[in-house]
Structures are given as C-alpha cells and as structure tokens.
Amino acid sequence: MSEPIGSVTVRTSPTRSRLVLAGEVDMSLAEELSAAVDNVLALAMPVDVLVRDVTFLDSSGLSKLVRLATSSISRTRLIEPPEFVRFLLEVTRMDEVLDVVEKDPGFPDDDPSPDVVGLGSQRDAV
Asked: What residue stretches are annotated with the MlaB-like STAS domain (predicted)?
C-alpha cells in the first residue's frame, strides 16, 4: 500500500479529545483513522474533529466519522468543515448526528505540540 497523502493526529486534554484530519482522508488512511477513532472512543470524553485542512474525503473516511458520531458519549463536533465536506454531510444526512462548528473554539490547554501523533502510539500524561 502506498504512503497516505492525508494525516490524522489525536490530541487529548483532561476534558476533550480532538482528531485533527488533513489532506486526503481516503482508503490509504483508513487503518490509521480507525485506530485514532478507537483511541478517542476509549477515552470516553467529548470529541472534536478539526477538518479545516481536509482536501478529499471518501466513503471510508465518512464511515469512520459515522462510527465516531454514533459511539461517542456526546455529540461529536466537526470543526471548520470545507464546503465539499458540508455537502457530503448534507447528502449523507450525517449533519443529523454531528454538530458543525464554523469557527474553531480552540482546544483546552492548547499548546503547539500534539499529545498523540499518528496511530496514537505516543501519548503524554493527561
């Protein structure tokens, strides 16, 4: 399998988790995204998904977002979705299970370094 052109990063704080998606979120990123979704669901806290820098989203990425939205302890927030992502949410009716947030509200304890990178194998104390 070729190297993914997209990326997924997991950030955690004492009160929230955040997935940061960028680039092409497609089948090449499916395994990594699935592991990231598993990680944030296991933390059992509210989840934000920052999608501002997503350039492509296919059905494999959408399916992981559906799993996250339907399994999370609270409504998942999709932060700053590009127009094409909004369109996909509307036609798939995912906008009924996700909250769309226009402007990034920031992240608790925001600092420039992520807590978890890639598959979530590295993690700082929360």
From this structure: 19-95
In contact, 49 and 65? CB cutoff 8 Å: yes
Look up the pTM and report it. 0.82
Is 66 part of a structural domain of the chain? Answer: yes
Give CA–CA dist 2/9, Å, rounded.
19
Residue 50 structure tokens: 């920052």
| Residue 81, domain member (yes or no) | yes
How would you label 93-104 residue by residue, b for 16+ Cβ within 10 Å and e otherwise?
Answer: ebeebbebeeee
Round to whole Å and give the CA distance between 18 and 28. Answer: 21
| Contact between 65 and 88 (Cβ < 8 Å) | no
Instruction: Compute CA 4 distance to the chain's CA centroid, rounded to the nearest angstrom.
Output: 16
Confidence of residue 107 (pLDDT cuts 50, 70, 90): confident
Encode pLDDT of 52-93 as tens digits. 999 999 999 999 999 999 999 999 999 999 999 999 999 999
